[in-house]
Design brief:
This protein is of the alpha/beta class. The chain has helices spanning 76-79, 98-115, 122-130, 213-229, 243-254, 266-274, 284-293, 315-324, 343-350, 369-374, 409-418, 431-440; strands at residues 13-19, 28-32, 37-40, 68-70, 94-97, 132-135, 141-144, 147-153, 161-167, 170-174, 198-202, 234-237, 260-263, 304-306, 330-333, 357-360, 379-384, 388-393, 397-400, 423-427, 446-449, 456-459. A hairpin with a 4-residue loop joins strand 2 (28-32) and strand 3. The longest helix has 18 residues, at 98-115.
């Protein structure tokens, strides 16, 4: 049956964006008809330096109208504003996968440490957790009368899911963040078997080339081992969630003769990931590797050492000791954009030598120390004893490895063609990236860019 042959039960079905329409950050979208309103995601935009995070623009005033809320995955730009719902008139349920719930609780607590109650309080967080309904992949569940959802593996991070929405028989696929590349933990996103009326897809990478993981990993391991074999240190500033687990999985497969120190929130995210190391949540190849090696986790080898109070009486002093040591080691630590974190202590020592290697393995936002280094800065401010900063010269080698957790344009084209999408809306990307993708799509769909707070009619 064609779209225009179906009859709507409750007026037009509309889509409105309140963040991440033509930007990356503070994702928040409402799908609604005359009687029902569903919010998909509600994140915060991380700003450079000491600037406060930004909430979705205008969404708070709509919280009391909502019937249900959906979350695709745990990253803060998708989840960070959710606890504010229960402090501003929402009394319903929040849906996500089971791993996502465990991860967001850690991220929400971390947010409270950084920004306090500026957006929401501990009360809102606890109410969000208690009102969460967790689902497995492919589990169909009705969220309000006439509307059901199903999560499909997005291949982005642990627990991430595309959300297939059946709205009175109209099929809407919201991708969230997806990755079409095979990584050490995931086999790329899964393509739904259903034909889809409307595809709402991320567009983060535009038409930029997304390099295969095997190629990047080979280069990464070669540079790391070369540095170690010459007696030097490798510092890997990394996002605690996703990229850290991926790189540690790669490192432990190839390097077991040098210490790998793990620092910061990465330790907690490793522990959560270990609870979900099954074929339901991660790749078959990783499960096969674990079985072949007789291990229960790719993060637990003799040469992997957590910098924690369980292992060292004073972690801050140990970081200094490690920095002064002449031994070749790998240090995998937060923060991914080189902002204040345990990384700063490690950099104070490692950055002095031009024989050491500092890797850049993720996106570096404008205004961050990581972006400054990529732009050629010879010194950056580093935290000293928690409450002071001083400029530190960076003599170490800086090398960028072009990892991406987001899909290529070919992945979007394959998805749209396979599901026979009738319409495409592009979100979660800069306007230029969305324009570039639009020119690449040639399968007869009408790709649209959703502008902030401007409603688009999906079905009428």
């Amino acid at each position: 049956m064609k779209i225009n042959e179906r009859k709507l039960k409750n007026g037009q079905i509309k889509l409105t964006g309140y963040g991440a329409s033509a930007e990356v950050g503070r994702s928040a979208f409402v799908i609604e008809d005359d009687k029902r309103r569903v919010l998909i995601e509600c994140g915060l935009k991380i700003m450079p330096g000491d600037e406060p995070t930004l909430a979705p623009d205008g969404i708070k005033e709509r919280f009391h109208e909502l019937d249900a809320v959906l979350l695709s995955h745990a990253h803060v730009d998708h989840s960070g504003y959710l606890p504010a719902l229960w402090e501003n008139g929402y009394f319903g349920k929040l849906y996500m996968t089971r791993p996502t719930l465990e991860i967001v609780q850690v991220l929400w607590l971390d947010h409270l440490k950084i920004e306090g109650n500026r957006h929401w309080s501990t009360s809102g967080m606890h109410r969000a957790i208690s009102n969460t309904v967790t689902v497995d992949y492919h589990q169909e569940i009705e969220i309000t009368e006439g509307i059901s959802i199903k999560y499909i593996n997005a291949g982005h991070i642990l627990g991430s899911g595309m959300i297939l929405i059946d709205w009175d028989g109209y099929k809407i696929l919201f991708t969230g963040d997806i990755n079409d590349k095979i990584t050490p933990l995931f086999d790329g996103f899964e393509i739904p078997e259903d034909e889809i009326d409307v595809l709402i897809t991320e567009s983060t990478n535009g038409c930029r080339e997304v390099i295969e993981r095997e190629t990047i990993n080979s280069e990464f391991i070669a540079d790391v081992r070369r540095t170690l074999d010459l007696g030097n240190k490798v510092i890997i500033p990394c996002f605690a969630l996703g990229r850290s687990q991926e790189l540690l999985t790669v490192l432990t497969e190839h390097i077991r003769d040098y210490p790998i120190y793990v620092d910061g929130m990465i330790k907690i995210m490793n522990q959560i990931t270990e609870k979900y190391l099954s074929e339901k949540w991660v790749s078959n190849s990783l499960i096969t590797r674990m079985k072949n090696e007789g291990i229960y986790s790719p993060f637990r080898y003799e040469n992997v050492i957590e910098i924690s109070k369980d292992n060292f009486e004073n972690t801050h002093d140990f970081r200094k000791y490690l920095g002064k040591s002449k031994d070749p080691v790998i240090i995998l630590t937060t923060s991914g954009m080189m902002e204040p974190s345990p990384l700063h202590t490690h950099l104070r020592y490692a950055a002095k030598s031009n024989k050491n290697l500092i890797t850049v393995v993720g996106y570096q936002a404008e205004g961050t120390r990581g972006r400054d280094l990529l732009n050629g800065a010879k010194s950056i401010p580093l935290s000293i004893d928690w409450n002071r900063e001083e400029m530190v010269s960076i003599n170490a080698k800086i090398k960028r490895f072009h990892y991406s957790g987001h899909t290529s344009v070919q992945g979007i084209k394959n998805l749209a063609k396979t599901i026979n999408a009738k319409q495409i809306y592009m979100i979660h990307g800069d306007q230029k990236e969305q324009d570039d993708i639009r020119e690449e799509l040639s399968n007869g769909v009408v790709p649209k860019t959703l502008m902030p707070k401007k409603s688009e009619v999906l079905f009428d």
